[in-house]
Amino acid sequence: MRPFFLLPLFLSAPLLGEEPDRLALGNGDLFIGKVIALDDRLIQLQSPHGETPLEILNENLVELSFAGAGDSESTVELPVNSQELLLENGDRLPGELIALDDTTITFQTWFTGDLVVKRPQIKSLLFGVTPQKPIYRGPRDLEEWDMENDRNWSVSGGSLVARQRSTIGRNFGLPNNFAFRSRISWENSPNCRIHLCSMRTNTENNHAGDSYLISLGSTGIQVQRILIEANGDPTYQRLFNDAISLRSRSAKSMNLEVLVDRESRQISVLLDGEKIGQGVDPNEPPTGGCAIFESLDHASGDMNVRDIEVNEWDTRTRALRLEPRAGNELDTLSVAEGDRFSGFISTYDPTEENESFAIKTDLDPDPLIVPLRHCAVMYFAREEGTTFPQCRYRINLLTGGHLTVSKIELDPETLTATHPWLGTLKIDRRAMKSITKS
């Protein structure tokens, strides 16, 4: 059959009464149906208007969103885990630690089985992570957003793309405690702002009103509080800044996460899973539920925002996420009570009556025993010169987390993929939210 890759096709009817998969191509075409097979060469899509599957060249793929990817109820029947593994290359996996030795850990997942991971490839392991209530996943289309000019923004391949200097916003109904996460990329240099907790979805008079402002530039990240004076003029109060060089990043992208706790007036920023700063708002917190992306660059397509997630979360999860490592040379284990132990995490006893870790330290000849129920976050010693292999695809998971892989092959139930560190993986199709070109 001749590959189908240029003619645009727009289908509205779902397949067999079910929500369809959505296939976005680089030229802006959108195909709707059921993806029945996919490999590095072709994508086979069964449309509701034909018996013979369409064949589409994989090289044009931008994003494949699976049925139910935007529906928070689709995760209700899927297993949830209270532990999360973050790899040094940025991959994030929900699961459970079941074994540990001097060189590796074994991490059990429901969607791809047991994974044996080398300790230097691990950035952190979080314990007691409370499942987060999802508020929003997207973007799906422009109709759910408010814009100052409809021609300034577009949705292409699952991303918000700015055509020139402009803003786009949405009322998310942000709760008191929330995590706001997105992946931001650029062509030349980062030059954008994010407004959170605003009462409106635009920057009228060049500001968003009473809100938090996160500014992203080539020389760093700054977080400010915008306060409105009695005469209506804004004042800007700096909460913290980090002089990290974003322009020098070879990937020209970053995973940005902002954690806001309006009850304790704290706001924290994580970059690629690593905390870079935290500020305390000395004022009464802003009360709005809106968020705004603002592109400050006049170049077309120089702000690209994808994988936007808004989750409600509790203060325990926040405390666990933000515990720092003691140093790169030693293992670190932080507990929920605030203590932090450094040394070598030598063993893990998973038996139900014990469930504890043994840590060898310089302070005591006998190993320190820490029960699992007290653990917050674990770090392993880092090795210098660790390389992060480039991968072609990113698999986003419905229950949280993602994987970057190279070769893939999809059938109706399973995706087989090659991970640079974990080897060949067979991933349950039910776990997948989307596949994007990495």
Characterise this structure.
With 438 residues, the protein is an all-beta fold. It has 1 helix and 36 strands. It folds into 3 domains: 15-65, Roll (SH3 type barrels); 69-132 and 325-403, no CATH class; 133-312, Exo-inulinase, domain 1 (Jelly Rolls, Sandwich). β1 (21-25) and β2 (30-38) form a beta hairpin. The longest helix has 7 residues, at 315-321. It is globular.
In CATH terms, the superfamily of the largest domain is Exo-inulinase, domain 1
User: What's the architecture of the largest domain, going by CATH?
Assistant: Sandwich
Outline: globular
Number of strands: 36
User: Residue share in helices?
Assistant: under 10%
Largest sheet: 10 strands, antiparallel
Strand order of the largest sheet: 9-8-7-6-10-30-26-27-28-29
Question: How many domains?
Answer: 3
The CATH top-level class label of the largest domain: Mainly Beta
Unreliable sequence segments: 1-17
SS class = mainly beta
As a whole number of angstroms, the C-alpha radius of gyration is 23 Å
On the 0 to 100 scale, the average pLDDT is 84
Total number of helices: 1
How large is the share of residues in beta strands?
A: over 45%
